[in-house]
């Protein structure tokens, strides 16, 4: 798409003429806006708990292929100007023009383009990519660029603090200004002398942990003073700091305090009125470990803690004991994470300027102190061709255009402090990355935790960073290398060769990743060659950020490097309300793997009902791994996350924002292993989260005080029951069947095993007996089934509800299992599973069966066609099920079919259910849908803006309802 007008071989100033931009995405003579069909929408956002309208803007203009969710989030988050005033932006065109024209103007002023025509082409290409959701800049760009506000473009900041009171107080001030602007910052406190060292006056120093307390209170105050999300900050301490044990225990102790206060009746939920009494809750904590320490852990040897002023060992500790304490704290409260210092600095392009000591709050940006990074992320799924292969050349063209724009932004950007501005302008750190990796791999039929999936991710990441540095070297020839390059030239080129060597070691598994790898290899060869001659424009090029809000802007299914969260989603409808759908990449993946339309429809319907693919009809077990998700029945193993990060890490300038999720049952030993393996595999940072390890956040199952109140109520009820039982002796009465009764005989086949079931009923139609015939008369199987039949029949006659038997015996899994000859129960996990599903269909009411998730073939077909399992005459039309809380004038709530027309990206086979029957809460987020289907709580906080449940995004959380994030991006 672009090429330098000058000869890269000369590297002379006189040859610098600017970039020549060739059109790849946009069309000559046609503005990108004119190729798109636009429509007006009303954006009305309410807090679903209180019913309060938190935002309203009507008649906003967006492309018709943008989802309602994307347009809502962009309108509420990024449009500038007061709502209701002429200054308010009213459509995507104004937003994109505000940003893109500012970038283009700055590019012209600073000599980036060869001719005015090239500048116009650059503007059109960038516009096309943005409106077609191929990529997005990070949020500060949309907030600030082209407005009267300071032109802050960076989301990630690293500060520094020295061992003086002036520096410590300045840290509080600088951090406060960054939080006030909605961004986050990180820093390393290891220069501050420990509480075991003396001051020059002869007194004992306070130590860094004591100063963390003041900074934490400051962050909490600024957050509560008007921001809509928590302050995002990272605090790092070196493992050889004498106060390391106190640092490790800080949040661990506070978590114990939260439990004690909660049990005493205080409101300790996130945002609760009493949570402010708990300290250190506004920061992520990380320990910076060295190779020396990790080897001491392996060897079981002593490790020295060093004084900050002299560098001498003032105390020795057992390395394994300290490592164990770190893992125990992470098990208890998810903090601290680990950052691997030697690995980080071995890939550092500017060691002559200074070491990398810290990261931003999400741990993806790691660079010099007092620096910043602006981010942009590509939507990988946009580069998947019709033949389900990745379009590597097109991806490379997009990368080189985007990295050019990102570098231009530093020319006009403003920064929160003078020191950060100086460092960023001198080193020009960039952070290009991507989103939708999980969806891309699924659509290609590749498992996230598979060698093929990791190879694909590695080659794409390598191509992205290689293309970025190649363009950086070309820009250095045109507008000069970064100011700090000369003193770091040898180190920078050494790191480029390390990237190239890592690329050469990638093993490909199929044609798709081999093609990407071939292009990446060519790019790295050009990087090394051009870098020797031109130098580089940017000290850093790439990171993998959480992509929370901007991921929704691009309509991505998955964020950053993450796998899919769940196989079911929610989708907002144009007329209001929402619709539950099956992940739209699943049908594409099944087609890629050779399944016909009939099987795809059956599998999608099964996923809609169960939320997972285990025992889906016709799906091969070897294909299960393609549909593994972060949560649910087939959730990825923790090491699957670690291995994916390890595959991509050698091709990133920075690191990866990602949390390794573990089940509640995980042990401290498992956490130790994850931290150790992450170091061995070459990661720069690792954070873990064990389900339900934190109590200071609200969960949808009523966390914190609500849980305790419910438990107290149950205890009280149990006490009352015990007292009643003491006075009343319960004597069950058997209700015998009449001598002559109605009966039903059912022949069946389960996994090739044939059998017969005879069921008899009372005069009122209630089931009273069951007889099962399997195997030869006199065989062990026949005897066991006779005994089982008698036991169930006697239980039924003594009043045990059929629903109880159904809930206990369905989903039992043992052989024989598999296909049946019953059209209503096509697949069965065992004979017991089949029998009680059949009995439920024959003898239970629709409402009772719905509660158990058991439907007939007719009901499932109706559900696919209308969005409802129930007969139309019983519940009304499908349109009555789709709520429209705030319809436009003259607009009525759409029918199910109309909803499909208004949201064309949702195919008919992907639709599962419209808003459910009366009394069932409206589906709001994928996290809540997953809870509803699986019956297990998702351990995520509630959004402070709209009250819906958030879901993980990197090491942060993001709200699918309004786009709010808990992090810095």
UniProtKB/TrEMBL annotation:
Domain Ribonucleotide reductase class II vitamin B12-dependent N-terminal, chain residue ranges per copy: 42-133
Entry keywords, A to Z: Cobalamin, Cobalt, Disulfide bond, DNA synthesis, Nucleotide-binding, Oxidoreductase
Presence of keyword Disulfide bond: yes
TSCPD domain residues: 738-842
GO molecular function: ribonucleoside-diphosphate reductase activity, thioredoxin disulfide as acceptor
Keyword Ribonucleoprotein annotated: no
Location of the region described as Disordered in the Swiss-Prot/TrEMBL record: 865-896
Catalyses which reaction(s): a 2'-deoxyribonucleoside 5'-diphosphate + [thioredoxin]-disulfide + H2O = a ribonucleoside 5'-diphosphate + [thioredoxin]-dithiol
Pfam families per UniProt: Ribonuc_red_2_N, Ribonuc_red_lgC, TSCPD
Gene3D superfamilies in the cross-refs: 3.20.70.20
InterPro entries: RdRp_reductase_class-2, RNR_2_N, RNR_lg_C, RNR_NrdJ/NrdZ, TSCPD_dom
EC class of the enzyme, as a word: oxidoreductase
Cofactor annotation: adenosylcob(III)alamin
Ribonucleotide reductase large subunit C-terminal domain location: 154-689
Enzyme Commission identifier(s): 1.17.4.1
Family: Belongs to the ribonucleoside diphosphate reductase class-2 family.
Function of the protein: Catalyzes the reduction of ribonucleotides to deoxyribonucleotides. May function to provide a pool of deoxyribonucleotide precursors for DNA repair during oxygen limitation and/or for immediate growth after restoration of oxygen.
Protein name in the entry: Vitamin B12-dependent ribonucleotide reductase
């Amino acid at each position: 798409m672009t090429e330098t007008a000058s000869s890269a071989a000369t590297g002379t100033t006189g040859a610098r003429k600017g970039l020549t931009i060739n059109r790849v995405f946009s069309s000559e003579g046609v503005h990108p806006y004119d190729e798109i069909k636009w429509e007006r929408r009303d954006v009305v956002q309410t807090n679903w708990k209180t019913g309060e309208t938190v935002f309203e803007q009507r008649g906003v203009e967006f492309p018709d292929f943008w989802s309602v969710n994307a347009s809502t989030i962009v309108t509420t988050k990024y449009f500038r100007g007061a709502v209701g005033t002429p200054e308010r932006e009213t459509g995507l065109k104004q937003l994109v023009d505000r940003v893109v024209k500012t970038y283009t103007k700055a590019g012209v002023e600073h000599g980036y383009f060869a001719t005015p025509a090239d500048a116009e082409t650059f503007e059109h290409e960038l516009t096309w990519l943005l409106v077609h959701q191929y990529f997005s800049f990070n949020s500060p760009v949309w907030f600030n660029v082209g407005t009267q506000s300071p032109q802050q473009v960076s989301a990630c900041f690293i500060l520094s603090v020295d061992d003086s009171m002036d520096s410590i107080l300045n840290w509080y001030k600088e951090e406060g200004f960054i939080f006030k602007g909605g961004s986050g910052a990180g820093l390393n406190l290891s220069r501050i002398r420990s509480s075991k060292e003396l001051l020059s006056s002869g007194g004992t120093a306070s130590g860094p942990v004591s100063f963390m307390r003041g900074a934490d209170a400051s962050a909490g105050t600024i957050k509560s003073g008007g921001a809509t999300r928590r302050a995002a900050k990272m605090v790092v301490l070196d493992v050889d700091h004498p106060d390391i044990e106190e640092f490790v225990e800080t949040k661990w102790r506070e978590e114990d305090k939260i439990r004690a206060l909660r049990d005493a009746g205080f409101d300790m939920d996130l945002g609760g009125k009493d949570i402010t009494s708990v300290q250190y809750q506004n920061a992520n904590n990380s320990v910076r470990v060295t190779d020396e320490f990790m080897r001491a852990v392996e060897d079981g040897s002593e490790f020295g803690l060093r004084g900050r002023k002299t560098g001498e060992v003032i105390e020795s500790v057992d390395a394994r004991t300290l490592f164990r304490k770190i893992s125990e704290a992470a098990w208890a409260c998810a903090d601290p994470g680990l950052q691997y210092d030697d690995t980080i600095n071995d890939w550092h392009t500017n060691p002559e300027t200074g070491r990398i000591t810290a990261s931003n709050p999400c741990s993806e940006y790691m660079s010099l102190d007092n620096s910043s990074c602006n981010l942009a992320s590509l939507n990988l799924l946009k580069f998947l061709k019709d033949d389900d292969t990745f379009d590597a050349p097109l991806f490379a063209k997009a990368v080189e255009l985007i990295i050019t724009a990102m570098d231009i932004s530093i020319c006009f950007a403003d920064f929160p402090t003078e020191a950060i501005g100086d460092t960023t302008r001198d080193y020009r750190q960039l952070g290009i990355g991507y989103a939708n990796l999980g969806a891309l791999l699924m659509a290609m039929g590749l498992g996230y935790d598979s060698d093929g999936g990791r190879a694909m991710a590695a080659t794409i990441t390598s191509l992205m960073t290689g293309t970025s540095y190649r363009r950086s070297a070309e820009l250095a020839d045109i507008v000069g290398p970064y100011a700090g390059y000369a003193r770091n030239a040898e180190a920078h080129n050494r790191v480029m060769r390390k990237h190239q060597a890592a690329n050469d070691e990638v093993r490909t598994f199929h044609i798709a990743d081999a093609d990407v790898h071939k292009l990446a290899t060519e790019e790295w060869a050009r990087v090394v060659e051009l870098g020797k001659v031109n130098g580089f424009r940017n000290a850093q090029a790439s990171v993998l950020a959480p992509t929370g809000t901007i991921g929704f802007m691009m309509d991505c299914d998955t964020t950053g490097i993450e796998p899919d969260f769940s196989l079911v989603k929610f989708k907002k409808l144009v007329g209001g309300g929402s619709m539950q759908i099956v992940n739209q990449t699943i049908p594409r993946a099944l087609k890629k793997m050779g399944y016909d339309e009939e099987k795809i429809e059956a599998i999608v319907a099964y996923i809609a009902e169960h939320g997972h693919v285990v025992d889906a009809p016709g799906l091969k077990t070897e294909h299960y791994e393609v549909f593994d998700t972060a949560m649910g029945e087939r959730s990825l193993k923790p090491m699957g996350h670690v291995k994916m990060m390890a595959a991509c890490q050698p091709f990133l300038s920075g690191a990866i924002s990602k949390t390794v999720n573990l089940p509640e049952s995980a042990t401290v030993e498992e956490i130790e292993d994850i931290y150790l393996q992450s170091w061995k595999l070459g990661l720069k940072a690792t954070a873990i989260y064990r389900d339900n390890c934190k109590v200071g956040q609200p969960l949808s199952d009523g966390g914190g005080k609500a849980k305790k109140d419910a438990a107290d109520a149950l205890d009280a009820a149990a006490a009352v029951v015990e007292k009643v039982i003491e006075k009343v002796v319960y004597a069950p009465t058997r209700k015998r069947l009449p001598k002559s009764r109605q009966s039903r005989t059912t022949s069946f086949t389960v996994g090739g095993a044939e059998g017969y079931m005879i069921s008899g009923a009372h005069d009122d139609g209630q089931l009273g007996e069951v007889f099962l015939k399997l195997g030869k008369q006199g065989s062990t199987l026949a005897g066991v089934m006779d005994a089982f039949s008698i036991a169930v029949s006697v239980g039924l006659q003594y009043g045990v509800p059929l629903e109880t038997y159904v809930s206990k015996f369905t989903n039992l899994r043992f052989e024989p299992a598999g296909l049946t000859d019953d059209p209503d129960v096509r697949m069965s996990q065992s004979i017991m599973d089949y029998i009680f599903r059949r009995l439920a269909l024959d003898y239970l009411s629709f409402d009772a069966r719905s509660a158990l998730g058991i439907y007939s073939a007719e009901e499932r077909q109706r559900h696919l066609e209308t969005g409802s399992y129930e007969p139309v005459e019983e519940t009304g039309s499908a349109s009555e099920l789709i709520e429209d809380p705030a319809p436009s004038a003259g607009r009525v709530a759409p029918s199910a079919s109309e909803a499909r027309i208004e949201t064309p990206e949702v195919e008919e086979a992907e639709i599962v259910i419209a808003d459910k029957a009366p009394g069932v809460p409206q589906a709001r987020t994928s996290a809540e849908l997953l809870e509803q289907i699986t019956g297990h709580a998702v351990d995520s906080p509630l959004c402070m803006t709209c009250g819906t449940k958030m879901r993980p995004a990197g090491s942060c959380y993001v709200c699918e309802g309004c786009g709010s994030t808990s992090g810095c991006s």
